[in-house]
Design a protein that fits this description.
- The chain has 355 residues and is an alpha/beta fold.
- It folds into two domains: 253 residues, Alpha-Beta Barrel (TIM Barrel), CATH 3.20.20; 88 residues, no CATH class.
- Helix content is 36%, strand content 15%.
- It has twelve helices and 13 strands.
- The strands form three sheets. The chain has an eight-stranded parallel beta sheet with strand order 3-11-10-8-7-6-5-4.
- Helix 1 packs parallel to helix 2 and helix 2 packs parallel to helix 3.
- The longest helix is centred in the middle third of the chain and has 22 residues.
- The radius of gyration is 19 Å and the shape is globular.
Amino acid sequence: MEFKPLCIGDLTAKIPLIQGGMGVGVSLSNLAGNVALQGGIGIISTAQIGYREEDFSKNPLNANLRAIGKELEKAREIAKGGIVGFNIMVATRNYGEYVKEVCRQGADLIISGAGLPVDLPKLAEGFQTKLAPIVSSVKATSVICKMWDRKYNVTPDMIVVEGPLAGGHLGFSLEDILSYTKEKFDNEIKGIILEVEKYAKKYGKKIPVVVAGGISNEEDVNHYLNLGAQGVQVATQFVTTEECDASIEYKNTYINAKKEDITIVKSPVGMPGRAIANKFLDQVRQGNKQNITKCYQCLSKCNPLEIPYCITDALIKAVRGDVDNGLLFCGANAYKAERIETVSDVFKRLGFIKK
């Protein structure tokens, strides 16, 4: 299949592939920079991005804001002119400060989900950073586009449609995840494309629609592009690459996982997510509550007195290599990973680079 470049306003990615943002610490400068170098779009996750900073435990917000500039600078050095952006969860505490810092640092793009980013245009006002909400339904797309149009007289620069096979926090109920069918998701994508076209016409601009969630091979890519999407977003497939910022123990857990190990979990803030089963999740399901002595100010609706475990602590343990006692978010097809590859290998396997 012949691929067209992905154009987001005045940004042009030679290859219509976005690497999805993965926190904590899974997609930082090395992964994002190398994806951008190949002609795709590299995305750094702001979720506890500063966890390696010396003062992170004392002042996580300052550490995270400082790390945004550091990681972007390193990614840009690797990318050599390629497109680099950030994923910022709406559910993040101090969301506005993260958005403003990413814009101040000159990032090309913000992709934002885990909630509806209804005020994102106001927070990014005056900057050239492109804005792309993550949606999971026609309804969510309509709400965002209507509010941005009415309140700020703007429209999204791109829409990312995330399906129920994605990893991490999901924008679906447990019932929706369990009742997923490809046909149902395809129909939702078609409806979203039609909804977006209304605003593209009104504002006289092209608004690309990019599909994410469970994409693992060339057939998946071709399927969504043939549906009318202008690109795809892939995350899980990049975890088991040499360039991924996670530890080798983290990557090997994906490689060793079987299909039955991929499970739906409930995060401390009540959102469903997908992760790899391990000793940590067994203990959570048995009702073992952690003694939480430190709050890292990550999610806005989190109350340390009520939650069963600290998600920041669990994610940091995992990314550093303590995979038995940490949380490993993943997409539905994580079990398909067989070996450590390179970013270039993933581009080839997805059909974007000729083998």
